[in-house]
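Hi U.,

Before I forget, here's the chain from the pilot set. I'm dumping it here mostly so it's searchable later in email.
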Amino acid sequence: MPVLSPPKRQPQEAGPSAFGTAALLLAAIAFGSALGLTVPTIAVEVARYTDLTLLALIFLLFFELRLGAVVKAFGNLRFLTVAWVANFLIVPMLAFAIASLLLSGQPLLFAGLMIYFLAPCTDWFLGFTRMAGGDTELGAALIPVNLVSQLLLLPLWLWLFTPATGLVDFGALPGILFQWFLLPMALAQALRALLTAVLRELAFERLLGATGLLLSLTLGALIVQIFASHVGAILANAPLFGLVAVAVVLFFALSFFTGVALTRMARLSYPEHALLAMTMAARNAPLMLALTAVAIPGQPLVLAVIVFGMLVEIPHLTLLRQLLLRRSAHAALPSPT
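Structure:
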């Protein structure tokens, strides 16, 4: 009897536009770079508002978070345990091995790569999970678990993986986490609770749709600001990003095969396998981009690595969806007699 069973039919919902998101990121990089190279005075003015953009991005990310869904996770502790071990024990070891192999001599790129690798996604992976026939209800419950875990573990990760760079002021880190993340999360969740109480369900869903669009535009604005103010430093190190690309692709490949092995060991169903594959592949790049810009200011190469990882990740998730659907179709075929 195969471990993978065919996916259950789920309601047809609009998934994320992978090509639209990739196009937005590329356009933001191109526009910001052109601005920084051709009109540096305007680029300086644009960069002055980076903190406001960061706050808006963080607030919108936390507004979309469904903390109430975490209660549902306790109905499937087996999967929750497998996913947590995969994301917060196995993936960090894979990430450290890959980054050490390819970028040990480049501390800034190494730090950016580790920050990108270590944080599992808390937003768009759910849309790809849905399109692959994965368990989205369980995925929604996994989101707050991933978020709380990565925020709690982040100081430890930075201490383990970036001490030689001297990039992080660890004494200031608790205050940064409170001011830039815990406080915005509390305010965003309070506003979400209020709007949920006063708006009808359909109106609130429409509001969330508008919030998703605004979130993408805010992320694009932040990337414009980063590249406009630091394009010179980024271009000076452009050849090294070939190694970053190799590292990201290798990470995605190893995480997929690790997910397959864990699926067989834990005897997960296909919807659970699809969810595990997506949560191990998708990274929380927008939040890590915001956190890094605050915790490690003035280091454009670290930020550029995170943006570059996002660009590789989007087509990878699209291909992963196709691969998962093919595997599920193969598992559903009757065994030959």
